[in-house]
Specification:
Largest sheet: 6 strands, antiparallel
Oligomer: single chain
Number of strands: 12
CATH superfamily of the largest domain: Nucleotide-binding domain of ferredoxin-NADP reductase (FNR) module
CATH architecture of the largest domain: 3-Layer(aba) Sandwich
CATH topology of the largest domain: Rossmann fold
Radius of gyration: 19 Å
Number of helices: 8
Bound molecules: flavin-adenine dinucleotide
Strand content: 25-35%
Order of helices and strands: HEEEEEHEEHHEHEEHHEHE
Length: 267
């Protein structure tokens, strides 16, 4: 398919404007934004690269806020991965295809009630929550926002400076804004200086939920009445956490039925 035909049909060719590397295999990249492109915080885009003569598409959560005049993504380079082996080389000025349509139902708008929003992420599953927290809307909708980011190594705790700034200066101002609690957990290197920072937990999300440490640390219980929960990232974490929540009486949001949690599997 020619570039021209693709552009007029379902995708546009956008220009990479900025690349930030957090570690050897974690990066944030910004692109231009197609005219008229609209999305809700929490949704994902489909990005395309021509690789060995064929178009390869992959899903990427948007980390930019809906009103930003650029699109931003947070990605990991998967060893041997078809798409990310190519993505690893991107630099400002390069092009990337962006589907005109946006996807995904893991948005705060899925919840019709509740006063606390828990956002649980492993690894790059943090991405949609960065968008959600950059958007003023969620700060007025909930009383408490709890962001839980679980990574293997402490240097994978991306976006932490910005998230700490947001905590103190919510995007729409402090007036009536929710209180944000940021919880970081490291699973593999508890001995390093960053991981040993006060407040950084150790252990998987499921372990911290099962032993009660997460709720104790946050100072809020997870309840059917007030807690609304998002799960994003590693499918095993999501499956196991779903079972824990289910056991505690919480239910997934369904099309016609309000529930207490929504999920987004990354593979
Ligand atoms: C709804 C949705 C949203 C997504 N959003 C993001 C995002 O914001 N950032 C991002 O980096 N990826 C995201 N992904 C994953 C992304 O689409 C690709 O699967 C990933 O970039 C690997 O592509 P690849 O062709 O290089 O590897 P593939 O050859 O497709 O290899 C896939 C394997 O890589 C591993 N893998 C894939 N994605 C990840 C990941 N994010 N973290 C750790 N291991 C992974 C898994 O073991 C998986 O089996 C998302 C996926 C979905 C379905």
């Amino acid at each position: 398919m020619s570039n021209q035909a693709l552009a007029s049909d379902k995708a546009t060719l956008e220009t990479v404007t900025q690349v930030k590397r957090w570690t050897d295999n974690l990066l944030t990249f910004k692109t231009t934004k197609p005219a008229g492109y609209r999305f809700d915080a929490g949704q994902y885009a489909r990005l395309g690269l021509f690789i060995d003569g064929q178009m390869v598409w992959r899903a990427y959560s948007l980390t930019s806020a809906p009103d930003d005049d650029f699109l931003e993504y947070y990605g990991v380079i998967v060893p041997g991965g078809m798409f990310t082996t190519e993505l690893e080389k991107i630099k400002p000025g390069d092009s990337i295809w962006t589907e005109k349509q946006v996807y995904g139902f893991m948005t705060p708008g899925r919840f019709t009630d509740g006063s606390e929003l828990w956002m649980l992420a492993t690894g790059t599953g943090l991405g949609p929550y960065v968008s959600i927290l950059r958007d003023p809307e969620v700060w007025q909708r909930f009383r408490h926002l709890v962001l839980v980011h679980c990574v293997r190594h402490a240097d994978e705790l991306a976006y932490q400076d910005e998230l700490n700034l947001l905590k103190d200066s919510p995007p729409g101002g402090k007036e009536g804004a929710a209180e944000l609690k940021i919880v970081q957990s490291v699973t593999r290197d508890p001995g390093t200086a960053t991981a040993a920072q006060p407040g950084v937990l150790h252990g998987r999300i499921t372990t911290l939920l099962n032993n009660g440490e997460l709720e104790k640390h946050v100072g809020l219980p997870i309840t059917i009445e007030s807690s609304r929960i998002m799960l994003c990232g590693n499918p095993s974490m999501i499956e196991e956490t779903r079972a824990i929540l289910h056991h505690r009486g919480l239910r997934p949001c369904r099309r016609a039925m309000p529930g207490q949690f929504v999920t987004e599997n990354y593979w």
